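Forum: Protein Structure Q&A
Topic: Joint prediction for protein chains with partners

I've read a bunch of threads here and the consensus seems to be that you should model interacting components together rather than docking separate models afterwards. I'd like to see that in practice. Below is the full input, 846 residues plus whatever partners are listed. Could one of the regulars post the assembled result?
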Amino acid sequence: MAPSPSTSAADLLAGSPPPPVPRLASTSPVRLSRASQSASLPPSTSKFRYSAPPEDASTTSVQRPKPSPPRSGPVKTSTLLPRPSPRAQEPQQAGVSSYGQSSAWKGKGKEVDSSVAAPAVATVPQKRPFTSTKSTGPQPAESLLRRLGGPSDQKAGLMRDKEEVRQIIYEASKNSKYFIAQQEKDAQLTLRVDALVARLNRLLAERGGNVKAEQARVDEMIAELEKTRVLTETIVVVDADAFYASCHQREDPSLVGTAFAVGGGVLTTASYEARKYGCSSAMAGFVAKKLCPHLKFISLDFSLYSSCSKSIMAILRQYGDISPASLDEAYCSLTDYCRREKVTPAEAAERMRAQVLAETGLSVSAGVSPNAMLSKVAADKNKPNGQCVIDPTPEACMEFAGGLPIRNVPGIGRVSERILQAVGVHTVADVYRLRGELFLIRNEVGLSFLLRAYLGLGRTTISHADRSQRKGISVERTFHSESNIARFYKRLENIAEALAGDCEKSQYSGRTITLKIKTHTYQSISRAKTLGSAIYFSDARTFYTEGKKLLDKEMANRRQMIARGQIPKGGKDFCLRLIGLRLSNLRDDKATKDTGKLDGWAGTRSKSKAATNSQGKSKVKKEESAPPDELAFESGDLDEEHNRSDLFGDEDDHHSLGFDDEDDVKPTLDGDGDELQQLNNFIRSSQGEHPSSDQLWAAVGDDVDLSGMEGFDEDSADEEDDIKPIDTTHKPFWTAGESLNSKKQTGAGPAPMKDRLSFESKRVKEEMDEDADFFIVEDEPVVGPLKCPVCEKSFAGSEVALSAHVASHFDDEEPVKKKVKVGSSSSAKSVKSVKPRSLKDMFARR
DNA sequence: GCGGATCAC
DNA sequence: TATGGTGATCCGC
Ligand SMILES: Nc1ccn([C@H]2C[C@H](O)[C@@H](COP(=O)(O)OP(=O)(O)OP(=O)(O)O)O2)c(=O)n1
Ligand SMILES: [Mg+2]
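Posted by a regular:
Agreed with the consensus. Here's the joint model:
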């Protein structure tokens, strides 16, 4: 294809960074505005010369079996994209300490001496910074191999040769449908990347390769961001080592020291012994078996993980406010603890980890720094039973951040990595090096997100979740591809039942149901329906009937398309491998009930019947009264030909071995008791057991009880301080909060996901309109002709979208509300006053 | 509101 | 032979 012209500005760029001007000298990137912080921001890359990390230094117990990786076989694999610099391995940085060395974080000035040093990366000339990846050769594209999983990086010493592993993965995968699907995705991504590269090259060409002006603008951005730096907090991230695996080891000591994985069809995690062979999370079981023939597979046991998690969290809670991000990971503020106990953060973290190990038998690792993002990354640095502390200085933070592979930044996944890599960004420091170029495509790459990473900024407060913040509940099941419509319905029933069960347990209703299907070619499709702005439901029957409608509609649609000669998504065959349902736009029935403010809003939730408000009767009730007719499909239809959706051909039949393939998927909608049986039967599935939603959220409600019961220290959090707005509850830490604060104070938490990828344009409009001149929007048409009268959001050319959006104002939708400023248009106010407020707003707000 | 992507764990 | 489940965010309609 045309893209990535050999001529291109890629060449221009190759020499771009280093060229004429002594960049570092001339453009002192930032100036600190904060008086208290007298830091001179280091240039993009300072020199790191480290001695190998202290590796073992401290830490007690928990033997860490040293590597012992086999040899490295032949294996070649052509890497199409040469890495620009053979970055030093895990260098030890000034201001960063691996263990408790009290040196760290004493506040004592580290001298990072960032004054000198030529940009490390730039010293290794890049042939073509901006290349597109094309797998022309016999070997699969680098990006494809990467997509297939395997070692993401690092820990070179711990594992057998990375390339060998990837080769094995490739060989095991290459003939599967999954592989084909990944290949296709990769091809699509390549197009996207090529387009971006072409655009960048064009923009560069227009400027003759001179991006000094752009660099200057970025430097301004950096200066602004720097003002937001907060170094006064001490945030620790604690992450259990091989969590699921460790839990099982605790229960069954015979597993210790052995290579085993948790999960069946797909591994959720692998023991460290298994990791030496290349086994890892999200890897297919059969692939893992190839990598490690003697690998043992352990079935999932979620109650075990929950229990272990609770134990860990209870301990962490003694040190400060916590915010669990998952069962095995939590953020915790050590600020107060350190002050009170007069210990260094490193020491505090050591205590924490030691206590967890002693009391639960689970080893955890920790990262400590002034903010959540750095701590999160740091927690992985010395992974098995180790910790890493970053001093609270701009220098230490930036130096640590700068050395990271861009992929290690939370929020940068495979796709973002590839996009960035195409423009020459491999490490965080590259962001600065290529800031001028990145500015040209700031919207696509989420420049300010990257800059925050470069500066080592992150969230510094611990927020907590409340039930009202939950957005959805879902159940989905994978099975061997099939095309029998009656069976689809039965699966849908089971899923509806399971979802209703989860809703009941967690006490939520919702007003939007989404059907998700995945075709045998791994095409994901979702179809949603919102019954009404005030119609909430949580019963299996509604889930089923609405889900069925969506499914039927989709099938009809496809038939039509095919009749018209078009090819629907996922191909002509309607052969599925997954069906799922998701309930969203939730209402917290617990809060609703507890407050008793239900006024005219009909019953909360009696059994499993629809919980709807008075206005909801129309749809749901109707179906409730309308008996089984809707469900018309008798078991007899099961094997009938006309029930086959594949007028086009069935897919690989089966004789399962792993999935949700119970041959007998009986309709149990009105089921009395054997749903449990059913569910238990599911256990044939690849995972052995299903997470049953709640994983994280379940604890939110009982949190109080929990801490009360286990409350050892029974406080550790009050006294001592004035402002103590923070409480502890369950909540994914990176979400919620960022956007709420119009002041946007902090910046990236672990991975706000707020601003990433192509979200830049939105931010420009929404956040920067105050000091507008700061960002330019030159390469953006900006205002479309259509604008929302309420929030002023503009819509380019789509009246439908606009009207839907405007309507959403009247639905009291979250996003709109957020955007509406206090003093916004009067029309908004008047309208709002007329409309009933959502239950969520009325009752769920603290 | 919807649907597709992306990401984390 | 063969690649999971739950939850969240964001974009562009
Ligand atoms: N794709 C994934 C990734 C993780 N998990 C589960 C299993 C893990 O044990 C747990 C914690 O995830 P981590 O990313 O923290 O991985 P581990 O704790 O297993 O290993 P590490 O020592 O790297 O933290 O989440 C999962 O089900 N599916
Ligand atoms: Mg972990």
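Chain A has 31 helices and 15 strands.
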